Amino acid sequence: MKRKLLIISLLLIFCVGIMKLSLHVNMNPFRTVGEELDSFNNVSVYYNGAVNNVEKRNVTKDGYNLGLQYQCVEYIKRYYYEHLNHKMPNSYGHAKDFFNSTVKDGKLNTQRNLIQYTNGSISKPETHDILVFQASWYNSFGHVAIVTEVTENSVTIIQQNAGPFSSTRVSYDLILEDNSWEILDNKIVGWLRKE
Question: Per-residue pLDDT tens for 93-126?
Fold first, then answer.
């Protein structure tokens, strides 16, 4: 019995070690950091390698901080800056910081100068909205993505730095129940919109 417990303990330690390593080391031999993977409205998505890989800070010519190059936050801020001509008052913060839990549904998030909606909102998600995902055991920083398409029953996003083998495009089920629009993924806390 002690031998089995030791083997199980060692296997768990090994698995946790591999998962931690995958956060910092490019595990995908078919991609290189900085490789263009996709684009939406001529704003490119680049490969970041490991989720926690950091190359450098990306700053615009006029000094606006877009974020850490190839991270998810850098893509959505670059998209909003280049395609929607929007600068956020608070140009820093992790993905999870984009959603302010004290802001009521449909009200202004002053840190981002965007209208914030809670997942389960009176307002249906729209193209260009920023989808905000809560932090998880795998990614303590959270995640953000851009909505590319909305139908009556689905939302499609484009994302940067979702993981070394993840797709840049993902679709989620969308339902309307009791006059509230909900994206069926419990990691999605809400969305932000430029009005």
Answer: 999 999 999 999 999 999 999 999 999 999 999 9
CA 56 to chain centre: 18
Confirm if 116 and 192 have CB atoms less than 8 A apart. Answer: yes
The pTM of this model reads 0.88
Which residues on neighbouring strands pair with residue 146, listed in sequence order? 130, 158
CB atoms within 10 A of CB 48: 28
DSSP character at residue 121: B
Q: Do the beta carbons of residue 158 and residue 145 sit within 8 Å?
A: yes
Report CA Rg, the chain.
18
Domains of the chain: 2-193 (3.90.1720.10)
Instruction: Indicate left, alpha or beta for 49 from its phi (over 0: left) and psi (-120 to 50: alpha).
Output: left
